[in-house]
């Protein structure tokens, strides 16, 4: 049976379709209209002449059109000609083990073959697998270690400690009173030079550690008038000069030369200013060696002036003073930049004080400050007192009339911040006290490595002493 329409796209011809054409014809489905390459008529000269296009003629014509020669050279360069010789002459390395690259799963390719019987290699491989498994945690630990090295073990930590919006070190100035050139009353000997050297070095190290500014002022004794030496009165003038020199600073810490910072790891912020209200007290009746009547009870004063603690706010404190057994002590005190401070310094530096009261006030500015606090109501609301051992501990030789006082004298167990050898020039050894406290500070602030070395040296020293004692005993027995 044949169809009226042929499945071939060409009219009247095509290939056989099994099941649609006659069953007696070739219906294998394998016959198809084939034409050889020579049967295809090409455009151009080949079609015009009726010649068959061969592969060689088509290739030659294509090369002529593209502009390439009929053949291309190979291995013309020196390296191209000798590359195989060079590669075969290179040494080869065998890492051991069996590598069968013909396998489908080439698991051993590109890996170091294990060394049979080596515990070290197996341990390293196991460590590497564990480290890779905990790579995130290990990365965090390494990051923290790197941050510690950058910010604590290197000088980089001084940058952020000094920055005003990070550490805040630029807000504080340490003023150290020194006598670098001697005075007119007496020459400085070797012990005085040694005291000054250790004190200045101690303050420089502390200020550098926490990013503070250090101002070393020359407080040499100068004869201002025919009948007196105005040495201590220069504190007020020096503070005002420092306020002009450091306009960004807020707090100024005055220190006498005979002071030594025992704990340089304490910053002023963490030790005092982070909680200034809790570290100070406004009511002088808490510790009142001068028996000053407090507060004022005059009815014309406002409520703040008649309050024993002022307004109780932190921002109203502009002067922080410690007290010893005799009253105010200005060997170590803090003063804040403010309008109230400018007014106080003006009155404190009044010529009436140092011209008419210098014979009556033995301690100069210290006695003047006590007089102002006693008689001026506007002084008290902005003045706070700090426990003496907080910033001004005394050695046993000072204020020792009544024996050791836990409120005044230095305590090694409590690790007091600073020691002031006040009055050591009157019958005490200033250099001996400075040396002892310096060595004690070095011992208390040793690093773990220094403690380890000192422990070894102490152990060997004790062992040597034991052998020496045993040897003496043996000699005594023999004799």
Number of helices: 16
Largest sheet: 7 strands, mixed
The name of the CATH topology of the largest domain is Spore Coat Polysaccharide Biosynthesis Protein SpsA, Chain A
Overall 3D form: extended
Using only C-alpha atoms, the radius of gyration works out to 48 Å
What CATH architecture of the largest domain do you see? Alpha-Beta Complex
Can you write the helix and strand succession as a string? HHHHHHEHEEEHEEHHEEEHHHEHEHH
Mean pLDDT: 79
Oligomeric nature of the chains: single chain
Q: Give the strand tally.
A: 11
Helical percentage: 25-40%
The percentage of residues in β strands lies in: 5-15%
Q: N-to-C terminal Cα separation, in Å?
A: 145 Å
CATH superfamily membership of the largest domain: Spore Coat Polysaccharide Biosynthesis Protein SpsA, Chain A
Q: Classify the secondary structure makeup into a structural class.
A: alpha/beta
| CATH class designation of the largest domain | Alpha Beta
The unreliable regions are 27-31, 35-50
Count of individual domains: 3
Record the SSE blueprint.
Elements: H1 45-49, H2 55-66, H3 78-89, H4 119-133, H5 135-151, H6 156-162, E1 172-178, H7 190-210, E2 213-218, E3 223-225, E4 228-229, H8 234-245, E5 251-255, E6 259-261, H9 268-271, H10 276-279, E7 319-324, E8 327-328, E9 332-336, H11 339-348, H12 351-356, H13 365-375, E10 383-386, H14 388-391, E11 418-420, H15 430-444, H16 448-478
């Amino acid at each position: 049976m044949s169809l009226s329409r042929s499945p071939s796209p060409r009219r009247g011809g095509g290939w056989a379709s099994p099941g649609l054409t006659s069953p007696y014809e070739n219906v294998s489905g394998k016959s198809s209209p084939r034409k050889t390459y020579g049967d295809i008529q090409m455009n151009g000269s080949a079609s015009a002449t009726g010649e068959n296009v061969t592969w060689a003629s088509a290739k030659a014509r294509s090369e002529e059109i593209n502009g390439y020669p009929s053949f291309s050279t190979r291995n013309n360069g020196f390296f191209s000609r000798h590359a195989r010789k060079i590669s075969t002459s290179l040494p080869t390395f065998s890492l051991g083990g069996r590598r069968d690259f013909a396998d489908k799963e080439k698991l051993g390719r590109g890996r170091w073959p294990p060394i049979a019987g080596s515990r070290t290699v197996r341990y390293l491989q196991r460590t590497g697998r564990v480290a890779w498994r905990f790579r995130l945690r290990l990365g965090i630990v390494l990051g923290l270690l790197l941050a510690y090295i950058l910010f604590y073990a290197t000088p980089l930590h001084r940058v952020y400690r000094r920055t005003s919006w990070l550490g805040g070190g630029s807000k504080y100035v340490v003023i150290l009173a020194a006598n670098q050139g001697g005075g007119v009353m007496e020459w400085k000997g070797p012990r005085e030079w040694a005291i000054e050297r250790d004190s200045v070095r101690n303050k420089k190290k502390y200020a550098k550690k926490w990013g503070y500014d250090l101002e070393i002022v020359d407080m040499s004794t100068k004869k201002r008038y025919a009948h007196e030496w105005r040495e201590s009165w220069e504190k007020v003038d020096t503070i005002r000069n420092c306020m002009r020199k450091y306009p960004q600073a807020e707090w100024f810490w005055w220190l006498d030369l005979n002071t030594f910072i025992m704990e340089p790891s304490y910053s002023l912020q963490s030790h005092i200013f982070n909680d200034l209200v809790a570290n100070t007290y406004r009511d002088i009746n808490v510790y009142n060696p001068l028996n000053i009547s407090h507060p004022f009870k005059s009815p014309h004063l406002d409520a703040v002036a008649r309050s024993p603690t002022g307004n109780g706010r932190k921002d109203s404190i502009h002067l922080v003073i410690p007290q010893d057994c005799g009253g105010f002590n200005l060997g170590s005190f803090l003063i804040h930049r403010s309008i109230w401070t400018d007014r106080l310094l003006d009155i404190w530096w009044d010529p009436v004080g140092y011209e008419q009261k210098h014979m009556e006030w033995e301690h100069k500015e210290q006695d003047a400050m006590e007089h102002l606090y006693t008689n001026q109501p506007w002084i008290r609301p902005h003045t706070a007192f700090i426990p003496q051992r907080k910033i001004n501990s005394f050695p046993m030789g000072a204020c020792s009339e009544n024996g050791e006082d836990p409120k005044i004298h230095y305590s090694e167990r409590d690790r007091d911040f600073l020691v002031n050898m006040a009055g050591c020039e009157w019958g005490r050894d200033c250099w001996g006290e400075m040396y002892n406290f310096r060595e004690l500070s070095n011992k208390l602030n040793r690093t773990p490595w220094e403690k380890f070395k000192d422990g070894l040296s102490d152990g060997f020293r004790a062992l040597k002493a034991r052998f020496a004692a045993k040897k003496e005993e043996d000699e005594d027995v023999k004799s």
